[in-house]
């Protein structure tokens, strides 16, 4: 490894699995000191033990105070925060727009969009003080074009891209870069769960790709390292699409989400409580 992130302190949400865990391992190998944040306390703590230069703080990203606490943990422990990765995610509400439950809708946006706002807000407070920093958020090809994800998920990911551009315009004069990564279908535990098996997930990801090969979390992690490094010091307000050409070459849309009976995939966030 080139250790492109030597000396950096990075906070990663949703770090216990999937793209977040891959990013943690790759950033650690590149020299970064890590703070891992996740609602999965066992998984997050286990990964922190695996990586010698990492600590863990349990965080429900749908709760602003908990995101603020994670940022404060990083700053108090290490004296600074160089990179914030807003990665936590779920599939959330799915099914026809005619049947989508409002509580499931709000729960999806709480995890996928509100959390990014909280992450940018509180990381930026620390970074503006130190006059440097990099904020990265996970968008999706579903945030670039319609029809590739459930309605709430698609809405949230469009919002992430818009917020990335807007925040970048304010924070650039303070030396803070703000970018997003928009992966295509990536073979994570979330996708495996949705497809029923790893084999099915690999097949679906390959079938959705004009290049004919599945996109893996490690490839998204490599892009995050690039954007966090000095190699990307003049890159801001940008959404890096990593989709094997799906958004320009075309792929089968996700009718699977719209045609299924309405439901919710993932852990209901603490910020949204069902009263019925």
Automatic annotation (TrEMBL):
It comes from the Bacteria. SUPFAM superfamilies: NAD(P)-binding Rossmann-fold domains. One of its GO terms (molecular function) is oxidoreductase activity. Keywords: Lipid metabolism, NAD, Oxidoreductase, Steroid metabolism. GO terms for biological process: steroid metabolic process. Pfam families: adh_short_C2. InterPro entries: NAD(P)-bd_dom_sf, SDR_fam. Belongs to the short-chain dehydrogenases/reductases (SDR) family. This is Short chain dehydrogenase family protein. It comes from Paraburkholderia fungorum.
